[in-house]
Amino acid sequence: MLTSSSSFKRINSLRNLLGGLGGRGDKKNLSVMGAAEDEDNSTVDEPFTPWIVSVASGHMLLRDPHYNKGLAFTEKERDAHYLRGLLPPAVFTQELQEKRTMHILRQYQVPLHRYIAMMDLQERNERLFYKLLVEYVEELLPIVYTPTVGEACQKYGSIYRRPQGLYISLKDKGRISEVMKNWPEKNIQVIVVTDGERILGLGDLGCQGMGIPVGKLSLYTALGGVRPSVCLPVTIDVGTKNETLLKDEFYIGLKQKRATGEEYDNLLEEFMDAVKTNYGEKVLIQFEDFANHNAFDLLIKYRTSHLVFNDDIQGTACVVLGGLLSALKLIGGTLSDHTFLFLGAGEAGTGIAELISLEILKKTKMTVEESRKKIWLVDSKGLVVSSRKDSLQHFKQPWAHDHEPVKGLLEAVKAIKPSILIGTSGAGRQFTKEVIEAMASINAKPLIMALSNPTSQSECTAEEAYTWSQGHAIFASGSPFDPVMYDGKEYVPGQANNAYIFPGFGLGLIMCGAIRVHDEFLLAASEALASQVTEEDYAKGIIYPRFKNIRKISAHIAAKVAARAYEVGLASNLPRPSDLIKFAESCMYSPNYRCYR
């Protein structure tokens, strides 16, 4: 038996020898004889150094999700890369693999089981995972993202297999930049980060919120064509307020109360500085599912020093404004002709309200105050009015208008008489039968947008909206609903899914080398989305384009965002391409298999 000292000497000498034999791209399979015996012969208490010399070989190739093709390796590739005997003899095309995988997925009756199967596929065969998402986007989007991702986050500790992103916690204070260097990819262009405090409408899920950044970045690649290697999911763990998780022996995060105040701010500041130090000025940082009190502060603090985007505030606003602009063809008038009533005055509601106001300002000669008076908000205490201004949070104050106090939503609908009702409350079934009937009595075609996620938290269902309005409502929701038959006619609900916006928006920022996010970019994205709705869609009462065309939609959004960036002088990739749509399409990642030499 070798001593510990002699083991390390052998390992070091072999490491030095192999260091001169080439890197990962070499085609010879070099094994380190003796390393396995050293590990087996060392005692449990003896320190052991785990290390791998990685040279292209069949065994390693099959376990690398970036390059693995499974049964789609050709006969020639199997010989060239030492795969002979490691795979069954059948050779499949990628199309046959797609068919087989979808057949397997459809056997699962529980959406969470499909989610787990898709995540397992992503860890085994990256290109097949994204190929499925692109080809079957309408079927698989609700699986890899909302609503199923909500349940996945709730049960993340139980279904956790292997790390899919970077975990940064209070334990890493003072060395976050060093921790980032542990991530294997160095050319990062998009980061989606959460602290897990407000996951969808499910509350504080702490470290288990990692499912959100992982899901969002999967969509950046599948829907926007951003290469997976440049995407980094991050969860910042500062503890949790969730007592159930704190008592759960399988909880994977810090078991302590959530940090706040200076301790929290300092950790976030170190993280933001580390991102710029490691990845440069042009990396896009998307804040995701931060609680209201932090979401606004972080966006305001870093929007002038970093390329930052908050999907809950800005992404939701973009997709809703896009739906509103397209809905005008069905309900008539211009945006400034309508009155808007929001249920929910948090980051989503006020973000949407602000973007609507900006679009009205752009298209009319109204003042800021006049455009804002078109928009009313209801929070947990009733209608947001000027008499409450001193007690309101700062982001609600611009929407506090002169009006007598009104307690409930139904009373607010009767008092304000809105033509458009938007729900961002995070509380299910708030659009009651009486509320929908009141909207239908005021408007020939009331626009009802129940945006809260997941499905259980939606303010009303599609069936309720169509039935209670007697088929007059134009309806869109945050989570998907099936078509509804009412009075012999089929009604197809639209889905105001942020996935329409952020993948193309991010691609546009990357391809033009934007250094900051300007409000004009948000308006451009909304207008581009609205332009993709077809007459066929309008005929069915749909105010959003079909997801099956999502890459085309994303290319148009990316082109419009990039064009606006060049116009306002915030693009750094020069010269400007002559055809931005074609350039966007050429930048998109293809999930088709590549041939190996």
From TrEMBL:
GO molecular function: malate dehydrogenase (decarboxylating) (NADP+) activity; metal ion binding; NAD binding
Catalytic activity, as annotated: oxaloacetate + H(+) = pyruvate + CO2; (S)-malate + NADP(+) = pyruvate + CO2 + NADPH
Binding positions for (S)-malate per the UniProt entry: R198, N453, N497
GO cellular component, one term: chloroplast
Residue span, Malic enzyme NAD-binding domain: 313-566
Source species, domain of life: Eukaryota
SUPFAM superfamilies, per the entry: Aminoacid dehydrogenase-like, N-terminal domain, NAD(P)-binding Rossmann-fold domains
NCBIfam families, sorted: PRK13529.1 (NF010052)
Family: Belongs to the malic enzymes family.
Name the record gives this protein: Malic enzyme
